C-alpha cells in the first residue's frame, strides 16, 4: 500500500462535519507516518541502504509521480501530507449557502464530511458569524459543497455521513415519500460514487441506489471495548444479559449476545401510532412486556440512534422494575434532541440507569460533561476505511468486525485458561 504518497487523497469538511473530519485526518496522518516508518525499516535492510538514503529515494519517487513539479517539503525527511482542502463557506442572510474551494482538487479522490446532526454553534463567514443549523441546513450545505467539488474537477466524490440524513423515512405506510432514498438519488445525480455511514437505521436504504455504493460501518468493537471497562463480561462477579429494546433492534442485540456469548432478552412494546411524540415524556408506548429474565443481572441494551429518548427512558425504568442491578445502553448515534439531556439527568438521579455509551460520530459538547455518558472514538475506524477504499483494498474485516471483537475478549479467555491449568 503506497501510504507514502497520499497526494491524490483530499478531504473537504463542511462546517457541521469539521470536528469529526479533523479527528479522522489526525488518524490518517498517524497512519501515513507509521506506514512510512515501517517501510523505511524493512527496505533499508532489504536493499542495504541507510535510512537517509532511502528517505531521499522515496521522496524522489513521489516527486516524479506528482502532477506538480515536486512536492513541497524537505527531500531528506518524512513529508507530512496535507489532506484537508482549504475551503470557505458563506451563509447569507436569506439562508443560502456558498462553498468555495481555495486550492485545486482536480483529479483527486475527494471525501466530503458532514455531520447533519451537529446542532452546536458553528463559525461561518470566516468566523464573523455564529450559527446553529438544522438537519435541512446541513443537507443543503452538503449539496452545495458536492456541486462545488464536482465543478472543480474531482476524479471521484465520496460522502462521509456518520448520520445518514432522513434515515428514519425509509418505509411507505401511506401517501408519503421515501426521503432517505430521494436524497440518495440526488447524490447519484451529482456523481457521488460512495457514502460511508455508521449504523444506518435500515438496510433497506442500501438497496435504494442504482450506482452509488454505501458502506455501513459498525461501532460494536469500540462499544464493547468501553463496556468491558465498566462490566465484568466473564461472568465471574456480574451476570450480564443483552436486552433488545424493541423488535426493530433484535438483530443488532443478537449480534452482541452471540459475540459476547451472553443470553438475549427482548422488550416487547405495544404502541399507539396515532400519537406523535414531541419530547422524551410524550411517548406512544401503551404497554411493555419482557421476554427473558434480568433479575439480579446487568442489562445491556444497544440501539442505532437516540432522538428524544422517550422509548429508552421507559425501557430503562421497566428493566429496573424487573430487578436489573444496572442498566447500560449503547447508542451509535447519540442525537439527544430537544430536552433529552435534562430528562436523562433526572433519570440518572433516580438510578434508572448506570451509563450510556455513545460515539463521537455526532458532535455534542454538553454530553461530554455528563458523568453518566461515555464517549467512544470511531474516527480511527473511518480513517481505516478511507485508506482501504482509496488504495482499493478489502473492507470485509472492518464491515463485519466479529474477529476484531474477539480481541477484546481474548485477555479474559487467557485468564480463565490460566486459572483452569492451575
Could you describe the 3D structure shown?
- With 422 residues, the chain is an alpha/beta fold.
- The chain contains eleven helices and 16 strands.
**Which class of secondary structure composition applies to the elements?**
alpha/beta
Across the major sheet, the strand order is 12-11-10-13-14-15-16
For the largest beta-sheet, the strand count, sense and barrel status come to:
7 strands, mixed
How large is the share of residues in beta strands?
15-25%
List keywords for this structure.
422 residues; disordered C terminus; 5-stranded parallel sheet; alpha/beta; 7-stranded mixed sheet
Secondary structure blueprint with pairings:
Blueprint lengths: L8 E5 L4 H29 L4 H15 L21 E5 L5 E5 L7 E5 L8 E3 L4 E3 L3 H17 L4 E6 L17 H11 L2 E7 L14 E5 L2 H11 L9 E5 L5 H11 L3 E8 L13 E7 L6 E9 L3 H12 L4 E9 L5 H10 L5 E5 L13 E4 L2 H12 L5 H4 L2 H20 L1
Parallel strand pairs: 1-4, 4-7, 7-8, 8-9, 10-11, 10-13, 13-14, 14-15, 15-16
Antiparallel strand pairs: 2-3, 5-6, 11-12
Helix pairs in contact: 1-9, 5-11
Amino acid at each position: 500500500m503506497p501510504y507514502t504518497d497520499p497526494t491524490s487523497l483530499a478531504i473537504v469538511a463542511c462546517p457541521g462535519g469539521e470536528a469529526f473530519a479533523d479527528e479522522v485526518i489526525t488518524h490518517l496522518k498517524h497512519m501515513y507516518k507509521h506506514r512510512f516508518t515501517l517501510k523505511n525499516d524493512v527496505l533499508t535492510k532489504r536493499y542495504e541502504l541507510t535510512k537517509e538514503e532511502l528517505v531521499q529515494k522515496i521522496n524522489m519517487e513521489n516527486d516524479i509521480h506528482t502532477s506538480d513539479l515536486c512536492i513541497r517539503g524537505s527531500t531528506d525527511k518524512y513529508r507530512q501530507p496535507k489532506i484537508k482542502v482549504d475551503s470557505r463557506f458563506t451563509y447569507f442572510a436569506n439562508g443560502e449557502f456558498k462553498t468555495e474551494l481555495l486550492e485545486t482538487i482536480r483529479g483527486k479522490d475527494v471525501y466530503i464530511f458532514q455531520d447533519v446532526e451537529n446542532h452546536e454553534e458553528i463559525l461561518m463567514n470566516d468566523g464573523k458569524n455564529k450559527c446553529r443549523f438544522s438537519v435541512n441546513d446541513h443537507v443543503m450545505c452538503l449539496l452545495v459543497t458536492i456541486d462545488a467539488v464536482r465543478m472543480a474537477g474531482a476524479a471521484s466524490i465520496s460522502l462521509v455521513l456518520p448520520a445518514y440524513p432522513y434515515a428514519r423515512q425509509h418505509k411507505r405506510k401511506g401517501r408519503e415519500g421515501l426521503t432517505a432514498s430521494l436524497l440518495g438519488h440526488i447524490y447519484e445525480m451529482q456523481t457521488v460514487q460512495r457514502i460511508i455511514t455508521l449504523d444506518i437505521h435500515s438496510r433497506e436504504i442500501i438497496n435504494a441506489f442504482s450506482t452509488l455504493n454505501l458502506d455501513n460501518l459498525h461501532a460494536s468493537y469500540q462499544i464493547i471495548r468501553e463496556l468491558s471497562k465498566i462490566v465484568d463480561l466473564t461472568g465471574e462477579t456480574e451476570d450480564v444479559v443483552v436486552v433488545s429494546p424493541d423488535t426493530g433492534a433484535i438483530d443488532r442485540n443478537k449480534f452482541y449476545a452471540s459475540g459476547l456469548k451472553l443470553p438475549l432478552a427482548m422488550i416487547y412494546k405495544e404502541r399507539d401510532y396515532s400519537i406523535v411524540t414531541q419530547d422524551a415524556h410524550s411517548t406512544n408506548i401503551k404497554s411493555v412486556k419482557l421476554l427473558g429474565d434480568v433479575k439480579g443481572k446487568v442489562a445491556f441494551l444497544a440501539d442505532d440512534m437516540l432522538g428524544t429518548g422517550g422509548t429508552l427512558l421507559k425501557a430503562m425504568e421497566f428493566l429496573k422494575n424487573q430487578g436489573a442491578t444496572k442498566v447500560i445502553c449503547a447508542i451509535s448515534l447519540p442525537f439527544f434532541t430537544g430536552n433529552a439531556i435534562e430528562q436523562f439527568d433526572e433519570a440518572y438521579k433516580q438510578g434508572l440507569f448506570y451509563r450510556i455509551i455513545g460515539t463521537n460520530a455526532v458532535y455534542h459538547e454538553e454530553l461530554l460533561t455528563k458523568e453518566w455518558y461515555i464517549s467512544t472514538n470511531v474516527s480511527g475506524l473511518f480513517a481505516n476505511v478511507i485508506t482501504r477504499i482509496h488504495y482499493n483494498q478489502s473492507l470485509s474485516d472492518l464491515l463485519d468486525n466479529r474477529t476484531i471483537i474477539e480481541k477484546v475478549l481474548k485477555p479474559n479467555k487467557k485468564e480463565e485458561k490460566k486459572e483452569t491449568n492451575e
